[in-house]
Design brief:
200 residues; alpha+beta; two-stranded antiparallel ribbon
Length: 200
């Protein structure tokens, strides 16, 4: 084969490879974006689990006020933007006796967190808009003696035993949303709202 013919064949195959790459690029991106979102969700969830554990540990062992605890643990969350997309609650629950309903003594909401509707406490959501305006973030509608509550520990706590429940919420801004591929086929959609709860 002559040198000239070899060069023509090389140029043709190089052109074919470029065309194939251009045609495959959208498919590669379509596969890469959901994987990128999934890794971000896994990372955010691991951070939230650690955040709720540390918050519950501090709430039950230290004498610091809840806002100080929430501010401290929220500072440890980069790359998450807790002030924009997150919320933290600390609830203080007391047992009445085995087999009876527990009472919630106090609940605190992080004053610097996002106030999204889907980030209300799952432990006790009856506070509504009745939060203290003095910067403590305390729910004002709980009497000093407490309010009966159905929680995960109801019926198992001793009379007077106090536990702390820390809830952490986070909304992940996803890059990829579900797509309709036609023929009744839709790509899966990740849930962007993450939640972690620790009882201590």
């Amino acid at each position: 084969m002559h040198t000239e013919q070899r060069l023509k064949i090389k140029k043709k195959s190089a052109g074919s490879a470029a065309v194939e790459f251009v045609l495959m690029m959208p498919l590669l991106l379509l596969l890469a974006l959901p994987i990128f979102d999934l890794t971000r969700i896994i990372q955010a969830n691991m951070i939230l689990v650690n955040l709720s554990r540390e918050g519950a540990n501090l709430a039950s062992r230290s004498s610091q006020d809840p806002q100080t605890i929430m501010n401290a643990i929220a500072q440890t969350t980069p790359p998450l933007t807790m002030a924009t997309n997150g919320m933290i609650y600390i609830s203080k629950i007391m047992g009445n006796a085995p087999g009876t309903q527990d009472v919630i003594l106090a609940q605190y909401r992080w004053t610097q967190g996002a106030s999204q509707a889907n980030q209300t406490s799952n432990v006790w959501s009856a506070c509504g808009s009745n939060w203290a305006s003095d910067g403590s973030g305390q729910c004002n509608s709980i009497p000093a003696t407490g309010t009966p509550i159905n929680d995960a520990m109801s019926g198992t706590l001793s009379d007077g035993e106090v536990i702390y429940v820390v809830e952490v919420f986070y909304h992940v801004d996803l890059l990829f949303s579900a797509m309709n591929l036609g023929f009744g086929i839709t790509t899966p959609q990740f849930d962007p709202d993450l939640y972690s709860k620790t009882i201590f």
